[in-house]
Design a protein that fits this description.
Blueprint: H1 5-18, H2 36-41, E1 52-58, H3 61-69, E2 74-81, E3 84-91, H4 93-101, E4 105-110, E5 114-115, E6 140-149, E7 154-162, E8 172-178, E9 181-186, E10 188-192, E11 195-205, E12 211-216, E13 221-225, E14 227-228, H5 253-266, E15 271-275, E16 286-291, E17 299-306, E18 315-319, E19 329-333, E20 336-340, H6 353-363, E21 368-372, E22 385-388, E23 407-411, E24 421-426, H7 434-448, H8 454-462, E25 464-468, H9 473-481, H10 545-556, E26 560-570, E27 572-575, H11 592-613, E28 622-624, H12 625-628, H13 636-644, E29 647-655, E30 657-659, E31 664-667, H14 674-699, E32 707-710, E33 714-716, E34 720-726, E35 730-735, E36 746-747, E37 760-762, E38 766-774, E39 793-799
Parallel strand pairs: 6-14, 18-20, 24-25, 24-26, 26-29, 27-28, 33-39
Antiparallel strand pairs: 1-3, 1-4, 2-3, 5-31, 6-7, 7-11, 8-9, 8-12, 10-11, 12-13, 15-23, 16-17, 17-21, 18-22, 19-20, 23-25, 27-29, 30-31, 32-34, 34-37, 35-36, 35-38, 38-39
Helix pairs in contact: 1-4, 5-7, 7-14, 10-13, 11-14
Pfam families: CHB_HEX_C_1 (PF13290), Peptidase_M14 (PF00246)
Family: Belongs to the peptidase M14 family.
Keywords: Carboxypeptidase, Hydrolase, Metalloprotease, Protease, Signal, Zinc
Amino acid sequence: MRKSKKVMHGLVLASAISALSFTTLYPGFGAPGVTRAQQLEGERITSNESPSIVQLEVPDNKALDKLVEMGFDLTHRVHQHGDKLEVDVVATPSEIEEFKKLGIKVEETLITEAEWNQRTTERMAAAQQEATITAAEDTIKVLQAKHYTNQSATFLYVEAKTSAGATASTALTATWVENGVEKKATLSRFVDYGEYIYHQFEVPVKAIPESVTITSNLGGSATTAVTEWLGEVKKGSPKKHYVKDFVDHYMDPNELYERAEQLAKEFPDLVEIIDMPNKTNGYRRLAQATIGSLTNSAVVVSSKAWGHEGGNDISVEFKNPGQASQPLKVTVDGKKIIVDLATNSSRNVTSTAKQVVDALNANASTLVSANTYRGNAGAGVVTATTTKLTDNLKAPERISREPQTVKAIRIGKHRDGSKPGVLGYAQEHAREWVTPLVTIETAERLLRNYAHDGETKQLVNNLDIFLIPSVNPDGANYSFYDFNMQRRNMTNHCGPNTSDPGYRNSWGVDLNRNHSVGSVFDGFVGASTSCTSDTYAGPSENSEPEARNLVWLADQYSNIKFAMNIHSYGGYFMWSPGAYNPQRVTLPRPTAGQEAFYWAASNEILNDIQDHRGTVILPKRTGPIPDVLYSAAGNSADYLWYEKGIYAWNFEVGADLWNSTTNRWQAVGFQPAYAEGHEEAMEFANGLIGLIKVAYSQSKDKQPPSTKAVPGNGSFSGPVDVSFETSEAATIYYTLDGSRPTFESKHIRLSGTREPAETLKIDKTTVINWFAVDAAGNIEKNYNPLSKASNFNSVTITIK
């Protein structure tokens, strides 16, 4: 039996990671009403299956990377679970059963909201040890030691890194004092794509410890203070006269755009609607039918016209003429196609599927095209039947089938490009119903508080704000009315072998994999070239009008300096780089100063999210995409950062909810009950306005940064590690040969993944010249690197 590409991906992967042998099953065998001869010639065509979200237990990060490479539809929700991973995957019932048979443990099947297994104390993965590392060689760095209070519990979270981390047997243990009692927890080792990242643990605590000590089984040790993550939830001091809560249900694209137009009409001095130049391909499909129930005798017929433009009116009749020795004949009568099938001397039908296909293509090509089922030779004899073609679309008539104009809401008192721009865009992935509400709620708050809230007026007066409620209106309509798990747009790039209606829920391009930086076409991981994969990158970079619209917007409005790509679910807050190659070499990391700015701005934004109902975006889900999730080749935020220099973040709304009764994290799903979806929209609208506030603060920043080399000028008896202290997040450009530093000079980078800025090891007498640039573009001492100015910083390190 021919299986879909997606199922075959699952079989290959499951076989690889479980090392189990298996026998392919043929559901057609033993089916009632089918003879043995028919079974040998063709198998039953199974109906299109509806997928659900299932939680899989995947052995390790290598297996997870294989899932990503093979284009499985991961939901962004990935958890470390002991030495294994828990991963949410969109899968059909057949795929779920294959997972079970092949040794991948299916923890739970989720619908729209489900409970996760209780988090257990993590243990170290069993793996082959590297050469023995002595305690003297084992150095521990504590990267983060934080406490935070979520909606219903207080947690202690620690990240630590050991120089012996490449060895799986290296174990780290945390100890702290809680209400006078010593507590312990083993840290989990996090390795991604073969690279050791760090160890971490997270546990609920009843009292906040002052410090935590991390010890290694090799003898290393480090102690650090425990500090607060994000800050306390602000209670009892709401903003005076600040109004919010302007959404009360999930909105389809038509409703979103209508709301946008209403706002523009109501606030003409503050709002304009931008019509994107690249129309979508439309919420439309060809009318189709698979005629026949066996693979070798089925004929797939597709209309030449779109379903709504007449394709749905076409009928096809396969007719036994009832006479002996008749030839195959096709007659077209208006929208009715009659196929008189060939017969033998006994009046039995002899026309095969392939013969009927050829006859239809030769004689009815003005109305339809035909092909055998998924590349089958079509040697089976067809049966008499009558079928009406249909595009299978179920949206009401008010939903246009025509190509749509994607709209952006532009908000600002001065919309002439003179003010810094901020972009928020949602619903690249159609099924993420909460995300457009974030943009609409944000627009409403900015406009309806403008007249009486001083802070809002400052934001609108001094910024140029762009909000795209739905990047992907066609896919969103399909998700609302036809197939709720639709991720992509609706464009079918498949050939005839994968274009029968049984594949209708597997067509489309993942718009967040269709961009030109770090794409699958450049060899990066995290997208697929299979047209039926849910991470299909398209036939080429920027092939889709929806992706080109985002590029156009960034090109047209060069004042845009900040962007937020709003997705769901899982509760992440991430930034570039977003992709790596099969050797886990990422796109270039930001400079240490840029990374520091990302973290500093994130702290402000995440505090604002927390203020709504106490939701904490966890420290382990905050940071560059590869450090906290997985590779996403060709994503749009990477395009904005690397090509346009825009500070670009990714929200993943829908953080897990902690159930203090069961002591388990509870997933919320793409389309939670609206009461939960509403809360997510409210808190992430807080966060989007938080980004807007960050942009406003930066627009006022005219103060150059100041820096200091530590140690400074002096004589030393041996090599010296020189670090730099900065007054704010800033990129430092330096030279070590006495020359003038410029933007082409080396810059200070991070010392390692999720580590602080590097130090310069000076082992001979050296003149260090440098200057710093902050995120607002202010240059230290107003130095001009493009001139012959000499007002840069300089120290001389003399090594005796």
